[in-house]
């Protein structure tokens, strides 16, 4: 046997092993697809995500969720109905750059999406306690997303700082842009 043949076999074995570990949810002993023809779990997750996104898009298109312009910024009415991050980012891009209300914002679409996600998290965390009379005020305020000209214009620290954390993860460069727009207009 020559050295090149052995190295080629080792690479083939390692490549196949790593593929199976990822393909089988990092547990190739419990989860296998013996013939490798149909990755059912991946398909089911993708289908569920697509259905979730379609429902959220329907809520926007049907007018259940809409933007209400108000002075410096505005409000996304019933924003809690749209939870899918892809749809939140997509609608935020539309609001910031393509809608008739685009002049309400100076910041980035990422800032809009981040603030929206914080409101959704607040709504989700307070939904069940609000049914028992606890945290009702916070839940009522989280139903709609109030947006300023940038995320830095948000008065409530418990919305601003988590939104900035989400924005750092999503697109850190937009924080610089949003802060520049904030100080430019203050």
Explain what this protein looks like in three dimensions.
This protein has 186 residues and is mostly helical. The chain has 2 domains: 3-31; 43-185, no CATH class. Helix content is 61%, strand content 6%. The chain contains 7 helices and 3 strands; from the N terminus they run ααββαααβαα. The chain has helices spanning 3-23, 40-61, 85-97, 109-131, 136-142, 157-170, 173-185; strands at 66-69, 74-77, 145-147. Strands 1-2-3 form a 3-stranded antiparallel sheet. β1 and β2 (74-77) form a beta hairpin. α3 (85-97) crosses α4, α4 (109-131) packs antiparallel against α5 (136-142) and α4 (109-131) packs across α6. The protein is globular, with a radius of gyration of 23 Å. The protein starts with a helix and ends with a helix. The mean pLDDT is 86.
Order of helices and strands: HHEEHHHEHH
- For the secondary structure, the number of strands is 3
Most strands sheet: 3 strands, antiparallel
- Helical amount: 55-70%
What assembly state would you assign to the polypeptide chains in this entry? single chain
Tally of distinct domains:
2
- Give the strand line-up of the largest sheet: 1-2-3
Judged by helices, strands and strand pairing, the structural class is mainly alpha
First-residue to last-residue Cα separation: 75 Å
Average predicted local confidence, pLDDT: 86
